[in-house]
Amino acid sequence: MNKNLKLSLLILGLFVAIILSFNIVSYIQHRGQIAVKVAVLPSDSSLTVDGKVTAAGKLYLTKGSHKLEASRQDFDRDTKNINTDDIQTGTVIYMLPAANSQAARTWLLQHPDVQKQREAAGGAESERLQTILIKKYPIISKLPKENLHYKIDYSVDANQKFSLTITTYGIINGPADYTRYVEQTKAYKQEALDFLKQNGVGPNTYPINYIPNL
To answer: Are 63 and 34 in contact (CB under 8 A)?
Structure first.
């Protein structure tokens, strides 16, 4: 075996050893943690996770819930509460500080490439959140449900609290119609509840708001 071949094999061996050592160290450092990809747009926005400043990219988080915040001068802060159980492999979480000031809107007009990226990221983020909601609340895939008698819709507040709203379309043209209106409303309400029951949702599964509340 000539010297050049020996030297090449030695260099290759050292390179492999370095890579293996790096992977072993990385595994030990992040053992028990979940890799989460986070992107911020504009990319020079500041990012914190659970109040600690960090850089966007691949983050290693402990299993469970975490609070992400992204901020930038002239932009409104973007805050997200995430749970590692809801994040699929390869999913990117986009943090998009809102351009609610004139200065922020002007900056985006001057950087149309960033605005285009934000629009695409906003769509991807909406799909991610919708996927999580459907997994937690399968009835969402059937909503909104509307016919001549009722409409069923849903809402999710900032604390991820899910609720349903049933709106009934009873007809009333004057005081003389009130009794019939109440009967209609109750019947249409029951029709809506029957639809929910057929799709695995009972009257006490989630909070339900009734309009009108009769």
So the answer is: yes
User: How many whole angstroms separate alpha carbon 96 and alpha carbon 124?
Assistant: 12
Domain count of the fold of the chain: 3
Residue 74 sits in a domain whose CATH number is 2.60.40
The Cα–Cα gap between 94 and 106 comes to 22
Do residues 38 and 131 both lie within one domain?
Answer: yes
pLDDT in tens, 171-197: 999 898 899 999 999 999 999 999 999
Q: Which residue has the tokens 């790096």?
A: 22
CA distances from 112 to 74, 98, 107, 108, 201 (A): 17, 15, 9, 6, 45
Query: E strand or H helix at 61, and its extent?
Result: strand 57-62
Beta bridge partners of 52: 49
> Does 125 lie in the same domain as 158?
no
Query: What pTM did the predictor assign?
Result: 0.67
Q: Is 156 helix (H, G, I), strand (E, B) or coil?
A: strand
CA distance 214 to 211: 8
